[in-house]
């Protein structure tokens, strides 16, 4: 645009002499100024406006007047005029531009007044005349308002923004016209196509850049990958570091085809259950029982088993044994609790899993109304085959859900003949995970804790969401208020100054918004902290772009696990199911800060998955091992060493070349010695830092931790009152007693340590208690104890040398740096069979002593004599004994199938009755019927028992009418309590015969007798089973000895009371002393049978006993008391007055009234009288035959 301007002269003459000069302004220059200074107002106007404004500024000179004006003859003046018209000065600037520059440069938001504009022009252009300036300034301002170039606010002038926009649009139109004109000049089609292609590329590039600019991160990873390919973006990220396997020396533990991702799945499952995310071992009821082990210790235990250390040392790592024992403590019934020790847990596990197998796999299809399952043709169903198979060829699904299958079944079968240290790591973990699953399914405490976690995390989530919502509402409201305020200011044109009176204050202040932000952050932190510390399930903290899961536990935070997906595993089926691709998963770990930093740097935070993973891994950096700091410290030491060497060299040169007095020479020599000492210390420090610490298996596998945990009660540290109360509360809440598994590690002494040492220690302690009651000859006792101690020494000779880790032996690599496995131990020590032979004989001898001393031997002898002399009893009585089992089985007909515990008890009683009748065939058949018993479905057991009864002629119940009336009265009460009994029995009701035999020492149990226990001891082939038999026997014998000790004390107290009464010569007081109910003394049982009257009992058959202690015999005689053993009672003796004893007769005294006693007592009395009659008749028969023989 060309604009015409008239120069502003100093006087009229100069204006007359100098013709008006036209100053051309290039449109392109104006556009460049617009781009360089976008904030300044530019002078743009239509051609008409420019002409009118410039006409107003200066008087127009007509061409005629210009022609009339004679040219100057003075050449100098002409030259000066010509030069002045060409030189740049204020005379060449349009007056409108001067006003616009003044307004822009003063930068007044409310506008500039006329006086201010005048001052600015004079200050920057002093050559302009003041009077003419005032006149022209007024005209220019009026024209500016008229043409809407300027706007007036009160007494001030501002640039009109609408005028600026108008100029910009005009500039764009001119530029477009210029481009169009250039296009018209192109004639060649090739050039035109090239231009179009260039424009298309420029447009596409512009759109691409616009899309890149508008992208918001983080976005979905798959979408990110697609957009990067589409937009041709190459994100240069550091390479993903190569991660080590979680168990680098055993790759099969991290990846296998059979278990997809190896043993580490089971390793992590066990850890998270006991100490990790689930934390069953951290619950109040289990905290005092489960040791606080770490994941590293647990993994070291598994590695030692895989290396073969367990087979060589003939023991499992104590921490692994501890986990088995703790799980079994919670699961096994009371019948197996007595047999559970650190040495016998595998035998208890074997019996428990056998019971679980029977409990969960009882064949319900035996019921007559059960419909068989139909077979399914999977090949035809999934379109792998075009023709279906015949129905007869299809096999229905197994109606059973076997508890034991696969590797677990293999481990279970191996435990029947081998000790647990011979099993592989995979087999051991399969057994332990089964126990973990059972505890998780049956633990009410764990279920309640999970419910509490769920409720608490839900409440924290609600609080977090409420805080987020409140912050969003406040932020939205404040933004809206600020937008309204800005809109109001724009509408007012910002012509007023902002003051407290005319500015509308916002309702939501920044302080209130900041408070909401803090509350939201606090709620978020609380939710995330609780979610990390008390997870409901173990889940990955994030995934990378390749869907590799990353795991981290805050309970053991020093390691990060990465589950990587590798190659596909071929399917085992002949056809592939849809979406059934299986990948081999591999466990890797990150345990160094340098590796973790590289992994974090390789994450692409533009994607949602890796962005979330990046945020989750950042707090973990400070928890893993800082190898970077360690390396920097080593470098610093090396640098310090070099500096000391340099100082030493300089000191030596100075010492050798310098001339010093004697005193200075001594100082220099001492400086050399000090520097040399510092260097030696530094080298020693560096050498110690480079030396790899020797592998300590006790610390690595958690044995030291387990010892401290087992010995917490013996700690001499003075605990605070709060700690003591907390410890007592945890012990009260603990459901089981702590079993010390650290004692499995042998010390070499006979102190109860080691596998065999724990067994021998139990027997020695029991024998000491027995010795206090009845002494054994010193020689026999010494040889008995020496035999057991020899077994411990022989076991330790073959075990203790193999406990140490030998990293130098190439055939047996025991350190974690090796990878080879060790074979069977090569030692000349005693074998397990020899050790068992050393234990069996002392065990049977000790059991026989207790059996005899407790009186159980005489009770068993009476029962056997009664059975042997059954032929001497009347025919009716003999027939009644033979049919006793039939009577018991016949009663089962009146019991419904849901009365499972009553049915089981009835079958067991029938087996005992058939054994008394010497009917071995019936005993075997009823035992088979008992195998079909199930606590939730006893119908099969009942049916099998009734079939046995029918096969042996059934039972005639006409003579039992009176008893049936009484039994029917009690039937309803029995059925009412049956559900409770069934719940209490649980798995114990389906225990196999071997489990019952464990507790059948001394007086037997259920359908297993003492002879079964003795046979089991003699046939034992494993240390674990021997430990179980010994532990069960010790538990039962301890109860017997405790009862005997109490009865012995009761007898001594009664004798002292009687002696005191005799010394005071108070006959009445002698009779006033109450006789103890049951007593014990070392007695000799006589063959003198009698009837005695015991308090609260009718006349009862008994056998007189003579004390072996003469002092005791005399004291009893002085007290007019006699020791008797009641027939049918096991072990206990009774103190009876002489006047309450009558000779034995086959019938009770006539004055005896049995109606005052219960039916149970009457039945017991009837059985005991029949037993006594058969024994007495047998004795008489034997004595008569001996006399005839004589």
UniProtKB/TrEMBL annotation:
Name listed for the protein in its UniProt record: Linker histone H1 and H5 family protein
Major location (coarse): nucleus
Chain intervals with Acidic residues compositional bias: 25-56
Any single GO CC term annotated in Swiss-Prot or TrEMBL for this entry: nucleus
Ranges for region Disordered: 1-92, 478-503, 706-738, 807-828
Family matches, as InterPro entries: Histone_H1/H5_H15, PWWP_dom, WHIM2_dom
Keywords assigned: Coiled coil, Nucleus
Domain annotation H15: ranges: 91-161
Coiled coil: 621-692
Segments forming domain PWWP: 1086-1147
GO biological process: nucleosome assembly
MF terms (GO), sorted A to Z: DNA binding
Listed Basic and acidic residues bias regions: 478-493, 707-738
Keyword Signal assigned: no
Ranges of Low complexity composition bias in the record: 57-92, 818-828
A Pfam entry, by short name: PWWP
Subcellular location: Nucleus
